[in-house]
Write a structure and sequence with these properties.
Distance between the termini: 41 Å
Helix content: 40-55%
Number of helices: 15
Strand content: 15-25%
Radius of gyration: 26 Å
Largest sheet: 6 strands, mixed
């Protein structure tokens, strides 16, 4: 086996002074990755060992942005599971996107006082338009490639939700909707599938968004989970022809508003008995029983339950192992919380491109983190019965 190790002295002799620090960082990173992968496989590179528990499977290239410049890394891949270097900064690009947005607002003279303070804290008082332009172009290219990438395979579950941010348009400050779609494919893997920015959550906006996902390859959707917005419901029926699940958390907030302050706890406990049932038929039976019990004293609430039954209990017809993740938009809440946290730093965006830049970078990094997680979001065994592929959907045979 050839000796791939490089001494520091050799590195100094072969590298120009300007590139020395970057070469050193790359050299150290490679050694760290080799040590980490050796620990995961149970053997060194090319080593024969009875203790080996995994095999290498080539490399994937990744640019690592450091204060010394861009370092080109070759990250080892494994045949089983995945590997991601612990020393990489997973949030680096989103921080750059945030910096770019703040800088853009600053040079256009539209930043708020909080942004001005942040600019000074970052030491960006002398930033030039050309510097901002270069940084924005770099980030925009990566974000656009991510958001426009082809969507391959079947995506059985789709969560969609919207949050609002403020942007400056024609001299006015207006709120705009930022919508995000997250899906789970037939392999049980979760990905961010798309985002868009629009003036409101009108049906036309949702329809255009879903059609764009379909053009990129979205197919096989069986259940869409969102809050109760008529525009979403109509767009899902028109474009995806999938079952729609009304977010149970949002629904319960509406229910408690009908119940009155003193009756909220009792009503909540009553409805929870329907959610606790083992199958869809039992859940529907209990739902109607609860509605009938409430009808004499709370007729409006009972009617509200009658109207919502089909949409709130839609998830009950899907595998029991998935239901905790299907009954609401909670799987998107953490992601939306991160979007809110970052966008509130900016306050008012200078334009819609800046929104897409920052939110797109956040989504890209979240997607990267999901991609390297070893555990699937949903297991293959529980996903198989839902597949339209007859080979995949065959029942598992006992060994």
């Amino acid at each position: 086996m050839t000796d791939e190790k490089m001494t520091v002295q050799t590195l100094i002799e072969k590298s120009p002074d300007a590139d020395f620090l970057r070469e050193m960082i790359g050299f150290a990173a490679e050694r760290l990755m080799e040590l980490e992968v050796s620990g995961l496989t149970g053997a060194g590179h090319g080593e024969r060992s009875v203790d080996r528990i995994n095999q290498r499977n080539g490399y994937r290239d990744r640019d690592w942005e450091t204060r010394a410049g861009t370092v080109e890394l070759r990250i080892p891949k494994l045949r089983k599971g995945s590997y991601f270097p612990a020393f990489l900064e997973p949030r680096r690009m989103a921080e750059k996107a945030l910096t770019a947005v703040v800088q853009e607002a600053y040079i256009q003279g539209v930043s708020t006082r909080s942004v001005d303070d942040l600019v000074k804290a970052m030491g960006m008082g002398g930033i030039s338009k050309s510097q901002v332009s270069r940084l924005c172009e770099e980030i925009d290219g990566k974000v656009k490639a991510f958001l426009d990438r082809p969507i391959e395979g079947d995506w059985l579950y789709l969560w969609i939700d919207a949050t609002y941010v403020k942007v400056r348009q024609n001299g006015r400050i207006v709120p705009v909707a930022v919508i995000v779609a997250v899906g789970v494919n037939s392999d049980g893997r979760r990905e961010v599938l798309g985002m868009d920015v629009g003036p409101s959550e009108a049906e036309t906006f949702w329809t255009a968004f879903l059609r764009k996902l379909a053009r990129r390859g979205l197919r096989g959707v069986k259940l869409v989970i969102s809050d109760a917005h008529e525009g979403i419901k109509a767009a899902v029926a028109k474009v995806l022809h999938a079952t729609w699940q009304r977010c149970r958390v949002h629904f319960m907030r509406n229910v408690l508003a009908h119940a009155g302050r003193q009756g909220r706890r009792v009503v909540s406990a009553f409805i929870a008995t329907a959610f606790a049932q083992d199958d869809a038929d039992a859940a529907r039976t209990q739902w109607r029983r609860v509605a009938d019990q409430l009808r004499p004293k709370l007729p409006k609430l009972a009617t509200f339950l009658d109207e919502a039954e089909v949409d709130v209990l839609a998830y009950m017809t899907f595998p029991a192992a998935h239901r905790a993740k299907l009954h609401s938009t909670n799987p998107l809440e953490r992601l939306n919380g991160e979007i809110k946290r970052r966008t509130e730093v900016v306050g008012i965006f200078p334009n819609e491109d800046a929104i897409i830049r920052l939110v797109g970078a956040i989504l890209l990094e979240q997607n990267d983190e999901w991609a390297v997680q070893r555990a699937r979001y949903m297991t293959l065994e529980t996903m198989a019965p839902l597949s339209d592929d007859p080979i995949v959907s065959l029942p598992l045979l006992a060994g």
